[in-house]
Amino acid sequence: MSLNLDKFKSVISHAKEYGFIFQSSEIYDGLSAVYDYAQNGVELKNNIRQYWWKSMVQMHDNIVGIDSAVLMHPTVWKASGHVDAFNDPLIDNKDSKKRYRADVLVEDYCAKIEGKIEKEIKKATKRFGDSFDKEQFINTNPRIIGYNNKISDILSRLAKSLENEDLEDVRNLIIELEIVCPISGSKNWTDVKQFNLMFGTKLGASADTATDLFLRPETAQGIFVNFLNVQKTGRMKIPFGIAQTGKAFRNEIVARQFIFRMREFEQMEMQFFVKPGTQADWYKKWKETRMKWHLSLGMGEDNYRFHDHEKLAHYADAASDIEFNFPFGFKELEGIHSRTDFDLKQHQEFSGKKLQYYDNELKESYTPCVVETSIGLDRMFLAILSNSLKEEMLDNNTTRTVLKIPPFLCPYKVALLPLVKKDGLPQIAKDIYNTLKLEFNVTYDEKDAVGRRYRRQDAIGTPYCITVDHQTKDDNTITIRERDSMQQVRIPLTDIEKYIKDKVSFNPTLLAM
User: Which of 383, 401, 380 is nearest to 392 (CA)?
Assistant: First the structure.
């Protein structure tokens, strides 16, 4: 794991300066852990969502999508266990008066140990050069073995204590590890207490008759309560999946790390319904499928890893996270869970409605098991933004800031740049702009020297810049500059649309998965 907090600060600064993310209600000093996606951010976010949707729904014959409501009957959350069990263990520091998630304090302590492991590996890599065998070094170096054993012991104890709801032992673990408050630097901790994360609201015209509701803390339950509706109207046969994207809300007491943990966030989830007894095979398949999707973005295999859960949720018989190497370390990006038949059985019990599948081949009814894939769209956005932001030294000893976002995800696919604001060049550029905008999201820029305009487009990640110059008037050709290599080629006006489409389409990447 590599910690690069200076890089993280640069990501946050870049996100605002170049129109990706703003603090919500900033003119009123903002609202903690709530953010607005700006003009470039909303385009990138939409493209990530669309890429997920295409790969999950359009590329699978047996997966369909829905869009369920944010507000649901309150008994839904009783049935799902959220009313009774959707809690975080919180601890206060008496000196700073700050509140923290107790489990996150312990996990951050382990992350620092992982940082020590990374340093040992880097030193060994430098010492041994090309002959260095990383895997053998990790498995045989006494110091690294000791570090890994310590991490394993700590996390195992934490998982056991949380599973047994032994909050006193969670506090004892924090004390024994001598974990200090990041603000005060003291070890003066309160007891650990549980806190329910759901936002409450009311439905009704008057306070006397209003019904207490919750803003949904996850999108999955909207899929489960519609299972039979979708199955029957879509004539779906097991195995099949239902996908959904949408907002969820959690009253996070310790929201932090920019858009990584927010109170209002967006999920992209798919619940895959399978015959009982086959869920282990499907769980393995979806782990592989989802990792392949992430790797298709080209952000480096070393930046991903699986983290299999020791502590399982009450509804699961297997669970794993796909973790990504953010600037603040490896953190959860996506969860793959084998949820058994818990959800459908719970809703069947609480609603009194039968939620079973009739299998024509077996001539019997049963409650399907579910394998879930759930990814945070905001976290995916942060992973792409932080991984793509580069500072490059050029041949002329100047630097450029560039966002090397995969071209098919970029906010703008093409920028139209007339070389000068005269001689009819702007009109030609605008004509090309008006033609291309039917197919692509394009932008037009005629202010400043063309080199400065290139830098602006680099900073927002635009993969291709089309420059209209005086030669264009003579032979109907234009210059296309490619963002990453900065190489330029000259092509006819008639070839522009095909040239760009071949470079920025989702399709080749989808077909390669």
Answer: 401
Residue 350 and residue 265 in one domain: yes
Angle at 448 between CA 444 and CA 450, to 5 degrees: 70
Mean pLDDT of 44-50: 98
Q: How many CB atoms lie within 10 A of CB 167?
A: 18
Are 132 and 218 contained in the same domain?
Answer: no
Residues 6+ positions from 373 with CB-CB distance below 8 Å:
269, 270, 272, 286, 290, 334, 335, 336
pTM summary value:
0.84
148 and 181 share one domain: yes
Handedness of CA 399, 403, 407, 411 (dihedral sign): negative
Q: What is the SS3 string spanning 234-269?
A: CCCCCCEEEEEEEEEECCCCCCCCHHHCCCEEEEEE
Q: Say which CATH number the domain at 415 has.
A: 3.40.50.800
**Before 142, cis peptide (omega within 30)?**
no
Q: What secondary structure letter does DSSP report for 19? A: T
Over residues 320-350, the pLDDT tens digits come to 999 999 998 899 999 999 999 999 999 999 9
Over residues 236-263, the mean pLDDT reads 89
Range 181-187 average pLDDT:
91
pLDDT score of 131: 84
CB 283 within 8 A of CB 318: yes
- Give the rounded distance of the alpha carbon of 387 from its chain centre: 12
Contact partners, residue 114, CB within 8 Å, separation at least 6: 1, 147, 151, 329, 330
SS3 273: strand
Give the range among 16-20, 189-193, 440-444, 508-512 with minimum mean pLDDT: 508-512
User: To the nearest whole number, what is the mean pLDDT of the chain?
Assistant: 92
How far apart CA 457 and CA 415 sit, in angstroms, is 7
Q: State the DSSP string of 169-228.
A: HHHHHHHHTT---TTT----B---EEEE-PPEEEESSSTTTPEEEEB-S-SHHHHHTTHH
Domain coverage including residue 50 = 5-86+197-386
pLDDT, tens only, 112-154: 998 899 888 888 888 888 888 888 889 999 999 999 999 999 9
Residues facing residue 307 across a β-bridge: 321
